[in-house]
Write a structure and sequence with these properties.
Elements lengths: L1 E4 L4 H11 L6 E5 L5 E5 L7 E5 L6 H17 L4 E6 L18 H12 L3 E5 L14 E4 L2 H11 L7 E5 L5 H11 L2 E9 L5 E7 L6 E9 L3 H12 L5 E8 L3 H9 L4 E5 L13 E4 L2 H12 L16
Helix pairs in contact: 1-8
Length: 317
């Protein structure tokens, strides 16, 4: 087995390597003065089972190109099998043609990854589950739910206040329902209307939150508009403490500013992407998924089942 990483999230790659007990292979991944990516693998990968760890988080295009060029490098070096480990899959939100003359970029990215020579993809909490079907190679789709649930259970020890799990939109009801079932909580929905890519207007709360703690669950947040609008609606309807749980926090300055000024008491996320800016870390709890990804990599390498790791209804870690 060989583990390789680009520059997207080296600390996560090192954590996975530590969990597995296999060092990261030596590779040079840099840029020429004109911005072109340069890759050279400094170890023999001939007939090796290669895992390339590279979330395609911002800067998305740069990290995606690094992944594709690394794949080409190890393929030309005669690797036996290449698995792209993409904890956060960029472009997954562009999964359908929702306007005239619009691209389906998630499908394009899937085609690029396959064309580069990837044999298998390991990812986590895709924005749209149907993106798995854009690939004609195996896709192992993990969920951060077990890691998030473990933290939530620990937080709620000795707390008698009721809990409501909230979906910030109709599309997330299935995910919220699964959390509510495991936690023994009530379910609520905040119907929203998206005004633009960064502005969301909450419409109506369906469910009971008065006097109860609430946790908003979603797959990702970037500008935090959806989460903060939902939190404001919950607070105005009498909710107690308000938490938000997301698998991927791709927070920039705008998202951080909104989180700090919002009614959200704590944002719980994973290290599928690099840490958020320092300005909002007092409200952000980042959970480690290196163990989850490491176990999945070991099972793939050893030809064992990984189904228990991506079962969304599983409450175990």
């Amino acid at each position: 087995m060989k583990l390789l990483t680009g520059n997207a999230h080296p600390s996560l790659a090192q954590g996975i390597a530590d969990q597995i007990g296999s060092p990261l292979a030596n590779a040079e991944v840099s840029s020429f003065p004109d911005g072109e990516t340069y890759v050279r693998i400094d170890e023999n990968v001939r007939r090796q089972d290669v895992f390339l760890i590279q979330p395609t988080c911002p800067p998305t295009n740069q990290n995606l190109m690094e992944l594709l060029i690394m794949v080409d490098a190890v393929r030309r070096a005669s690797a036996e099998r290449i698995t792209a480990v993409i904890p956060f899959f960029g472009y997954a939100r562009q999964d359908r043609k929702d306007k005239p003359r619009a691209p389906i970029t998630a499908k394009l990215v899937a085609n690029l990854i396959e064309a580069a020579g990837v044999d298998r993809v390991l990812t986590m909490d895709l924005h749209a589950a149907q993106v798995q079907g854009f690939f004609d190679i195996p896709v192992d789709h993990l969920y951060a739910k077990p890691v998030l649930l473990k933290h939530l259970r620990e937080q709620r020890q000795n707390n008698d206040r009721g809990l409501t799990v909230v979906s910030p939109d109709v599309g997330g009801v299935k995910m919220a329902r699964s959390y509510a079932d495991v936690l023994g909580a009530e379910l609520a929905i905040v119907a929203k209307q998206r005004i633009s890519a960064t502005v969301v207007e909450p419409m109506k709360l369906i469910g009971e939150v008065e006097g109860r703690d609430a946790i908003i669950v979603d797959d990702m947040t970037e500008t935090a508009g959806t989460l903060c609008a939902a939190a404001e609606t919950l607070k105005s309807n009498g909710a107690g403490r308000i938490f938000a749980g997301v698998s991927h926090a791709v927070l920039g300055n705008l998202g951080c500013e909104r989180i700090m000024e919002s009614a959200i008491d704590e944002l719980i996320t994973t290290n599928s992407t690099p840490p958020p800016p320092e300005a909002c870390r007092s409200k952000v709890t980042t959970l480690d998924i290196a163990g989850l990804l490491g176990e999945a990599i070991l099972r793939i390498h050893n030809g064992k089942s990984v189904s228990s790791l991506f079962d969304i209804d599983s409450g175990s870690v």
